[in-house]
Design brief:
Elements (H helix, E strand, L loop, with lengths): L9 E10 L5 H18 L2 E6 L3 E9 H12 L4 E12 L10 E3 L6 H12 L5 H14 L5
Helix pairs in contact: 3-4
Length: 145
Amino acid sequence: MASTSNQHHLTQLIYVSKRSSAVDDSEARSILEISRKNNDKCGIKGVLLVLPEYFFQVVEGPSKNISELMTRVENDTRHSELRILSNKVLSDYEFGVWSMVNVDINTENSDSFVVLDRLAKAKSPTEGQLKGMYFIFKGLSQPTY
């Protein structure tokens, strides 16, 4: 009989956490590089946005691996005030191009970061804000050729 355990499903989780003041740009790059290596090994894809005060991350992968990743993030002192903004089951990767992409703030996308900063500070984001956040992630994470 086939297993119907949710560990075989793909999960997409979006979270925001307050960035520790000890995490400078060099440390953020280190987090990204380690994430890329670890995520490749366990089928996790996603996007990491590092704002001055917050981390935003979309992670997708096997449910069991996402759960284990989130346990590590929750116990990581570089993060505080962790909030799950979205958690859903997927039939296929939506951010599957990347093992973990980092998006830098620049003049072309600075408006998106202002919106995300406001969202990070919102106590209870609305459904519309969450949809907007998803589209910002999709737009910022598209490969450039």
